């Protein structure tokens, strides 16, 4: 087992509220493994050196779900301290619109995730999912309405010709 660092370290991470345009549902994934097994999370991870926030959001969403996103907007910033491992993270929460018309997330990291599902924001606010590290509960209390503003896209049937 890896030993905690002798001096505390600080990192930065992005987390993405990936929104499905058709119904404004947000994508959550069920964790697998030693950290947070069975708890729910949003796509995200550590920012790589020299990477912009937007690029980091796009990379993390693509690496974890196989989906692509756009219209990335900062929602809030949280500070999370993990005393046991002597790590601290500045976590930047973003909203982003899924580009795909019928997004089907893929479990790209099966060693870390049991899978993904689209859920309404009200289900998260009502505590129907146990969030990883409790941060999502804090945000749900601060934002009883979805913390993003995106237009719901309706698909119009094309007229048929006879």
Automatic annotation (TrEMBL):
One of the Pfam families matching this protein, by short name: NUDIX
Keyword Hydrolase: yes
Biological process per Gene Ontology, one example term: dGTP catabolic process
Residues of the Nudix hydrolase domain: 9-151
Gene Ontology molecular-function annotations: 8-oxo-7,8-dihydrodeoxyguanosine triphosphate pyrophosphatase activity
Keyword Phosphoprotein in annotation: no
Keyword terms of this UniProt record: Hydrolase
Matching Gene3D superfamilies: Nucleoside Triphosphate Pyrophosphohydrolase
One GO cellular component, as annotated: cytosol
PANTHER family named in the record: 8-OXO-DGTP DIPHOSPHATES NUDT15, NUCLEOTIDE TRIPHOSPHATE DIPHOSPHATASE NUDT15
Protein name: Nudix hydrolase domain-containing protein
Record lineage: Eukaryota, Fungi, Fungi incertae sedis, Zoopagomycota, Kickxellomycotina
């Amino acid at each position: 087992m890896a030993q905690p660092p002798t001096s505390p370290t600080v990192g930065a991470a992005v987390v993405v509220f990936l929104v499905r345009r058709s119904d404004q549902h947000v994508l959550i994934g069920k964790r697998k493994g030693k950290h947070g097994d069975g708890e729910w999370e949003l796509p995200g991870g550590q920012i790589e050196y020299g990477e912009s926030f937007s690029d980091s959001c796009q990379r993390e969403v693509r690496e974890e779900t196989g989906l692509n996103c756009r219209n990335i907007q900062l929602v809030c910033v949280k500070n999370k301290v993990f005393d046991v491992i002597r790590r601290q993270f500045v976590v930047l929460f973003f909203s982003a619109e899924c580009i795909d018309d019928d997004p089907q997330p893929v479990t790209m990291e099966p060693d870390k995730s049991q899978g993904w599902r689209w859920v309404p924001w009200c289900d998260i606010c009502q505590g129907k999912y146990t969030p990883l590290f409790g941060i999502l509960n804090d945000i749900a209390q601060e934002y009883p309405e979805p913390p993003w503003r995106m237009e719901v896209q309706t698909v119009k049937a094309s007229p048929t010709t006879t």
